[in-house]
Amino acid sequence: MTTAQQYALKHANRFRSELHELLRIPSVSTDKDYAAECKKAAEWTANQLASIGLSAEVIPTGRHPLVYAEWMGAGPDEPTVLIYGHYDVQPASKEDGWDTEPFEPVERDGKIWGRGTTDDKGQFFAHVKAVESLLQAEGRLPVNVKFIIEGEEESGGESIAKFVHDHPDRLAADVCVISDGSMANKGIPVIVYALRGITAFEVTVYGPKQDLHSGMFGGTVHNPAQALAEIISKLHKEDGTVAVPGFYDDVRILGDNERTELEKVPYTRQAWEADTGAPEPWGESDYTIQERIGARPTLEINGMASGYWGNGVKAIVPEKAWAKISCRLVADQDPATISKLCQDYIMAIAPTTVRVEIKQFAVGTSSPQVDIDTPMMQAAIRAYEKGWGAAPVFKREGGSLPIVGDFQKVLQIPVILMGFGLNTDGLHGPNEHMHIDMFHKGIDTSIVFLNEVAAL
Amino acid sequence: MTTAQQYALKHANRFRSELHELLRIPSVSTDKDYAAECKKAAEWTANQLASIGLSAEVIPTGRHPLVYAEWMGAGPDEPTVLIYGHYDVQPASKEDGWDTEPFEPVERDGKIWGRGTTDDKGQFFAHVKAVESLLQAEGRLPVNVKFIIEGEEESGGESIAKFVHDHPDRLAADVCVISDGSMANKGIPVIVYALRGITAFEVTVYGPKQDLHSGMFGGTVHNPAQALAEIISKLHKEDGTVAVPGFYDDVRILGDNERTELEKVPYTRQAWEADTGAPEPWGESDYTIQERIGARPTLEINGMASGYWGNGVKAIVPEKAWAKISCRLVADQDPATISKLCQDYIMAIAPTTVRVEIKQFAVGTSSPQVDIDTPMMQAAIRAYEKGWGAAPVFKREGGSLPIVGDFQKVLQIPVILMGFGLNTDGLHGPNEHMHIDMFHKGIDTSIVFLNEVAAL
User: Fold this and answer.
1) Which CATH number applies to B3-195+368-455: 3.40.50.2000, 3.60.10.10, 3.40.630.10, 3.40.50.1240?
2) Which residues 89-108 on chain B approach chain A with CB closer than 8 angstroms?
3) Which residues neighbour B318 within 8 Å (Cβ) at sequence distance 6 or greater?
4) Cα(B343)–Cα(B345) distance, rounded to whole angstroms?
5) What is residue B397's predicted lDDT score, i.e. its pLDDT?
6) Fold identical between B3-195+368-455 and B197-251+297-363?
7) A 238-277 residues with CB < 8 A to B
């Protein structure tokens, strides 16, 4: 065990209580009512980075601020590691089915419970504490380190995308490491080499000018909830494929070799049932569950609402109905193209008895794929072996991290996706949590990674 | 003008300010959180009836109390008029699109604005003030009068149905008058002779055990919002008819004579457009708009919800989706039979990739039709002629008043549906209102009606 790892062990409880402070800030980036909380989380993070010895600043943007910090004391002959994370979180309220308040973190059963524990506050904070441990235990870092922590990962990430394009010099580095992912099993850490892109929009169906008495007008007005349901029902075919013409045209074909490789650590039906609790799998029958998640694009209804959904009965024909729809994309689909295809199709099938409007949300990037054969990736493998205690496997993942594509394209550096979470951590849903031992193993892995990069 | 009408004119402002007191009580019967408010509205109504000289009482029930009051001073040789109304209202909140607070009534542009103004507080209160005016101006009523005011009209009405069946003696009368309806034009009052029945239920589609990250699981889980949309899309055929097998089996055929009669005061497309604001009519093309509303059964989505419907994006696969569905029924459809047909069909088409549950709400009665050729109906015609100032027309209406069937069947008396509202009053929607002059004409019409019944 290195002296930095010893330091981390000794200060474990303090590290977590600091994390609790950050978790208590409801930095929900998708809802503009929480903008002040996002700013607060950015300031907290910058103060934290400054307090451990980095020069840190909060960078205002058009929406939620960025946090930038650096320690360049290793000198120009040593490599520079860029560490990315995000302080923003998904919306959460206790009514969604949480056992405890989402923004009042508690430790129970070996886990920290709260929104953002695993996605992504707990994960990026492991790197912060790794850097603190190295600086405190050894007086210096083995490499130069830059942190860039954004606040719009859950809501489009335009501000960091703009910053990367406008100031590539400030983020110049030899490798980028991102911990914002998860593994199926603590004993088999995972390095993700492909992610899905995303695009999202909202469809609103307008019917009458206001809610109508269903007795006085029912049977003469095309009910907007029904019309929306009719539209949604036409977005997929019976076989589970997306019915939007052209949707699959640009999808990069999954080769036989890659399918064989992925099958080595299959995602079994049993594991899927345990993770989802759903009655039986659904989707494209020509692909395994793992392939559907990692290598195939999807179209999902994220939410919908119309009329009266509270207790009891309200006998109305609703004024309108709306649905939030997002598509997960794979290489080489272009988000803007897919959005247009979907929206054109919806407008084409919309009946004339209602009026349909579509609002596009922020468009993500297309799915990045990361090169596996690099020295930096070898450093990451050794970091897991020595820091985590197990060799990693390589896999595709279904989530989206738009910034990965920007870092690859603009900064021209390898991006290592080094997740410290578990598939079952409940991210984006109720009762999100992070395993306490995984938080601490993350710190150890980050310490080893920085040492291994220096040793290359 | 009778002395009672003179009294009503003199006290017009006070009558309305008393009505405002009742309108301020949010007696929403469909939501159990408002049970105390329903009780308060019942007590207010009983106090009001006692204060004008009737013996009044609040009768507890299994849910919301009934209000009963009587004045039997005309003696056993005079007829008895039973006046029905309901103090409960539909849910309302300013966010639904109200210009003013729904439970803070205001008078503006010749109208009283607020939830319950026209449905039904303002309408039954006109009869209360007619009785007060007669008692104060003439020292007595020309007939015996009983009031029965319920608190569950918007939520099934089981308690009054039970009361009518258990205590028909207490409600014994020669005629029942109900003012809980509306006309298209102030100058052409309407007596409704047929109403639709209703039945309502809630369908919930369960998918995964909790909201899931759409990147990590999207494409492998049958999205409950999508599955619900697929079910809803199969409830109607392309031609606007309900697709549930057997749905129309018991519908009483609309005869050619009646169709011709109804066509005399048609509900034009222009009027429909003005009332609904919808782009174009929808529904059964073999029937006119008026027939679709009055003489044909329907199936409506009253509301639905799933996942995240607030601001911005939340990239999840929702845990569940639910829809509130109600059917408007016509003679001779049985509500329980229709509910079962609908629910069996939904369970039959539900995919095995999700789990579906259906909850039945209170079941109403089937559509009552009232006999037009009665002396009491002649009294009602004269009441409109002399009190309102115009002769009424007879029509079918699409709404439901379950109690009408009970009064007809159990009490064996004619039921006169004497509406004092306007189609455009916004009942069940935002900005519900009642025209001030129609409230006062209602009082006059009620005064004349009681005199005309005595004169028969």
Assistant:
1) 3.40.630.10
2) 90-91, 96-97
3) A301, A302, A303, B207, B211, B223, B224, B225, B306, B307, B308
4) 5
5) 81
6) no
7) 272, 275-277
* Pairing relationship of beta strands A197-206 and A355-363 according to DSSP bridges: antiparallel
Q: Which of A280, A308, A428 sits opposite B213 (nearest CB)?
A: A428
Rounded CA gap, A305 and A392, in Å?
A: 42
How would you label B64-100 residue by residue, b for 16+ Cβ within 10 Å and e otherwise?
A: bbbbbbbbeebeeebbbbbbbbbbbbbbbeeebebee
Q: How close does chain A come to B426, measured CA to CA in Å?
A: 7
Say whether A229 and B226 touch across the interface (CB within 8 A): no
- A36 Cβ neighbours under 8 A, 6+ residues apart: none
- Sorted by where each begins, the domain ranges of chain B are 3-195+368-455, 197-251+297-363
Yes or no: say if A297 and A251 are a contact pair by the CB < 8 Å rule: yes
CATH architecture for residues B197-251+297-363: 2-Layer Sandwich (3.30)
Distance from CA of B47 to the nearest CA of A (A): 29
* Nearest to A325, CA basis, from A433, A189, A407, A231: A231
- Which burial class, exposed, middle or buried, applies to A416 when counting CB atoms under 10 A from its CB (0-12, 13-18, 19+)? buried
The count of CB pairs under 8 A between chains A and B is: 371
Which has more confidence, A156 or B153?
B153
Neighbours of B270 (CB within 10 A): 8
Rounded to whole angstroms, the Cα distance separating A287 from A372 reads 24
Among the partner residues A235, A282, A322, nearest to B222 by beta-carbon distance? A282
Give 10-residue mean pLDDT values along chain B (456 residues): 95 98 97 96 98 98 97 97 97 94 98 98 98 97 98 90 95 96 90 89 97 93 98 97 98 87 84 95 95 94 97 93 96 92 98 97 72 86 95 84 84 92 92 98 98 95
Q: Provide, as residue numbers in chain A, all residues whose Cβ is less than 8 Å from the Cβ of B282.
A: 220-222, 353
CA dist., res. A230 & res. A243, Å (int):
13
The residue whose two tokens read 């005079």 is B78
pLDDT at position B365: 66
The residue type at A441: K
Please tell me the distance from the alpha carbon of residue A122 to that of residue A182, in angstroms, as a whole number: 12
Nearest to A215 among B228, B230, B400 (CB): B400
A247/chain B closest Cα distance in angstroms: 14
Nearest chain B residue to A307 by CA distance is B303
Who among B154, B279, B313 is closest to A302 (CB)?
B313
**Any idea which residue has 């009519």 for tokens?**
B281
Residue at B320: amino acid letter = K
Q: What is the pTM of this model?
A: 0.74
Q: How many residues does chain A have?
A: 456
Among A30, A286, A428, A431, the strongest candidate for a mutation testing the B interface, having the largest count of B CBs within 10 A, is A428
Chain B partners within 8 Å of A182 (Cβ):
216
- Report how far residue B56's alpha carbon sits from residue B67's, in angstroms, rounded to the nearest whole number: 7
Q: What is the largest CA-CA distance in chain A?
A: 80
What was the pLDDT predicted at A370?
76
Interval B195-236: pLDDT, tens: 898 999 999 999 999 999 999 899 999 999 999 999 999 999
Is B109 an 8 Å CB contact of chain A? no
